[in-house]
Amino acid sequence: MVERLPASALQRRGVTARGGNIDASSGALASAQQIGTLGTAFFQNAANNLLNEVSRQVVEKQTAKGRKIGLEATTTLSNGQEVPLAILSDETSIAARSRNAGVLESYTNRLNTTLLRNMEELARNNSADPVGYEEQARDLYGEIRKTLPNPEIQTLFDNKFEAILQPEITRQHVGAVKQERADTRLTALESVQEISLSAEREAQDAMSFNADLAAQSVTNIAQRRGELLAALNQTDANGDFIFSPDQQQAELRAFDFTVQKSAVLGGFRRATDKESFIDRWATAERENRSSDALTATQDKTQAGRRIYKTSDGQSVSELSITVTHPEINAGKPTNIPTVYDGKIVTEQQAVAIVANAGGVDPDTGRELDGFDTIDEAEEAARARSQSLRPVGDDGDAPNADFKSGVAPMLALQDVDRIEATMRSELRLIRAENAEVRAQLRTEASDAATILSRGEQPAGLAGLRSNMEAAGMFKELARLDLSERLSEEVVEFSRLPLSDQQGSIATLDQLDIVGIFESEKKAQFRKVHAAQVAAVRQGQGLGVAVEAGVIAPLESIDYSDPETLKGRAVKAGLASAHVGIRLSPLTPQEAGGLRQALDEATPGEVAGILDSLHRGLGEEQAGYLAGQIAPNNPELSAAITLAPDSPLVARDIVLGGRLLAENPDVKPGQTDRINGVKEVFGNMFTPETAGALDGFVDAGMALYASRRVATGDLTFDSDTFEQALREAAGNPVKINKRMILPPRPGMTEDEVEDLVLSTTDEDLALYGNGLPIFSDGTPFSVALFDRFGKDAQLVTSGPGRYLIFFPGLGYIQSDRGGAYEIDLRAKVDE
What domain of life does the native source organism fall in (predicted)? Predict the structure, then answer.
């Protein structure tokens, strides 16, 4: 296929064309494009540079008779000169060719150099395929040959190409073989490494305290060593050993040391007393190294040293160690033998022997090599210390005794290295344990706190496991105590408050000696005190919810009696649990009621007050009124009056708004005192005087609603006194004492008739026990005649009264405390 290149493409190569497009299938320019198509961009640039030089050396000497081939074009040289571009054809005169023979050969040589570079590129891309390389190289040659201008150059080019190609092909084959051997060696090394890693893992169990596990580990390691020997004896495709004898010995030595080290570390990590384990192992091993009996053989090393057999069948000759001593190689790191006269000596003994011998091996007279670094010396020592048994001789058969089964004969320096590793690891373990234990203590403390609340902390089982692994047995015992105690505390917290008091009283009577009982008593007191405090703060409903006595509180709609009925039932159950009367609303909900009434229209206010009584009932509504009285006394009064005087109750709520908006309408202190004396008289005793402020606030709110409506904000005593009476339910006087009627609006006659109609059964039915005098004498209706003369009722709450006899005091209840009778209940029967 002929590719047409536009002139712009050639201009980018430094070529200026005349006459439009250039045919890229002919001439030297085509070679650049063809080679570029083959992926050899490097040759493309090189060919252009060569053509520039040929144009300068050859084309300028062309005779007038010569005929150009290709198209007429020019090229720009590196110095900026534009010259004609042409190549000599086979019609060029003999004289011209002769004159330019040297130039042509130079040209061919330079093209061959470019070809060689491209062939090297092909070689890199076809390193594993010599045949493919040769084919591509000949294809490349063919493409370039097409661009040569005449047979003379082609012949020169052919000879040069073959001279280049054949060595390259040979080199490619050799490279492929080398690559194959390298791959084989890499695979073998990976196999050796995998075997060593496997043995290292299995060696962790070789010093296990479980005899069966240790025996199995020894058997497994012996099997791995056999696999290692097989891997080290592998050959390549030519039958040559992949590993040299030195390499085999080094790998075996590394394997044996790794296994020994892993086994010892396995025992170290299992030991409870790691410090003691290190001392016992290191001491025993050093004694073994120094006193192990050696048996001489007839063999010697190449250096002339006798080869000995250890008691476990290992071959040793030097057992080199690395030392630095001023009398040995001027203090440079030096490897010295530790085997002399059939004995393994200590490091100090070996140093003395070599120093006395003038720094040479006294057994052979060999000068001992010094090294620049300890690492270099130790690397050489590992190779020379390796036993010289033939590869494949694995010593005695494995058994459950680790040392005789698989452990190699360690040099003293190996013992030192393993001991150093253990001590370093012990330091890390101690540091990590301290940090871990601190973290675990924090987590245990947090868990105990959660348990004390009666909740179950997340991850408790994992925390226990970690604490046990860290040896935190005392802390774990305390956590166990917390969990066990938590179960009893949770059960205790669900008891009614009165039963909690009984449980604590029982514990107080016991002779507490154990930690658990002491802690339980303290926790019981803490829980009880917290619940009592919560009840006093108005959170009695919440206490009942946590105890499981009632379901979680749902949101309520103050204008919906149905939702309020359910809350009233819960409040009754919660009251029984905590032992006191509870309001059906939480403090937050009571505040929400105040806000709802403040934002409601007059009609909505009346509706909400009516809904409260129809939903909660009079008793629960009364508890609600008592709850909000300290902060909203006028609202408390409105709630109390709502069933009997709904309009008055509404006006009290609305009057509270008006009083805030019109502070000038509020009666002064003197006016308030005078009004209170006139309306309430002696109704309040020192014990009940706290209720007076509520009635006064409600009366002022009602007064504001009445007075602001007239537009006259000046004080009016009659209106204020009437507001006080209506806000209090129209007090009446019975036997010289003012009282609130059982029902707002009842007259004095109605109240007196109610009292005189009360029977002995009524005293028990509507009272808080049976009435008695202070000396225990029963009070009966036969004494009611005295009501009209001496006995007085003292208001203690809505429709509730104490009975007072001047000179005798209050009538008592046989249950304790003052007797109280609920006459409103009698009215409503």
Answer: Bacteria
For 296, the 3-state DSSP assignment is strand
On average, the pLDDT of the chain sits at 74
Q: Which two tokens stand for residue 193?
A: 């490494």
Query: How many whole angstroms separate alpha carbon 568 and alpha carbon 613?
Result: 11
Q: H or E stretch including 624?
A: helix 602-628
Which CA distances in Å does 236 have to 179, 241, 242, 710?
12, 6, 6, 121
Q: For residues 569 and 112, give the distance between their C-alpha atoms in angstroms, rounded to a whole number.
A: 109
CA-derived radius of gyration, the chain? 57
CA gap 108, 155 in Å, rounded: 10
State both tokens at 409: 């004969």
Nearest to 752 by CA among 768, 737, 772: 737
Chain mean position to CA 186: 41
* Pairing mode of beta strands 15-17, 306-309: unpaired
Q: Do 762 and 737 touch, CB atoms closer than 8 A?
A: no
Which residues, other chains included, contact 149 with Cβ-Cβ below 8 Å and sequence gap of 6+?
A: 28, 69, 87, 88, 89, 90
Is the pLDDT reported for residue 44 higher than 80? Answer: no
Amino acid letter for position 663: P
The burial of 757, by beta-carbon neighbours within 10 Å (0-12 exposed, 13-18 middle, 19 or more buried), is given as: exposed
The amino acid present at 621, given as its one-letter code, is A
Q: At what angle do helices 646-661 and 717-728 cross, to 10 degrees?
A: 130
The residue assigned the tokens 């709609």 is 557
CA angle 533, 537, 538 (to 5 degrees): 120
Q: Check the CA dihedral 133-139-142-143 and report its sign.
A: negative
Q: Strand (E) positions, 64-163?
A: 73-76, 82-85
Burial class of residue 801 in the structure, from the number of CB atoms within 10 Å of its CB (0-12 exposed, 13-18 middle, 19+ buried): buried
Q: What is the mean pLDDT of residues 809-820?
A: 92
Chain segment 224-261, per-residue pLDDT in tens: 777 777 877 877 777 777 777 767 776 777 777 777 77
| Identity of residue 498 | S
Buried b (16+ CB within 10 A) or exposed e, 205-224: bbbbeeeeebbbbbbbbbeb
391 contacts 229 by C-beta, under 8 angstroms:
yes
Q: What is the largest CA-CA distance in the chain?
A: 170
The candidate with the shortest Cα–Cα distance to 526, out of 550, 483, 493, 570, is 493
pTM for this prediction: 0.45
Q: Which amino acid is at 410?
A: L
Q: Which of 274, 158, 251, 240 is nearest to 196 (CA)?
A: 251
Smallest CA-to-CA distance from 448 within 438, 460, 436, 466 is with: 460
Residue-wise over 78-87: b if at least 16 C-beta within 10 A, else e?
Answer: eeeeeeebbb
Phi/psi at 234 (5° precision): -65, 150
Report the range of poorest mean pLDDT among 197-206, 353-362, 687-696. 197-206
3 state DSSP class of 778: strand
Which amino acid, one-letter code, is at 106? S
Quote the CA–CA distance of 67 and 738 in Å, as a whole number.
148
Rounded to whole angstroms, the Cα distance separating 621 from 632 reads 14
Question: Dihedral, CA atoms, 108, 110, 115, 117, nearest 10 degrees?
Answer: 160
Tell me the C-alpha distance between 602 and 56, whole Å.
Answer: 115
Per-residue pLDDT for 717 more than 80?
A: yes
Structure tokens at 740: 């609130």
Helix, strand, coil shares of the chain, percent, nearest 5, are 60, 10, 30
Find the angle CA(97)-CA(102)-CA(103) to the nearest 5 degrees.
Answer: 80
Nearest to 615 by CA among 661, 559, 671: 559
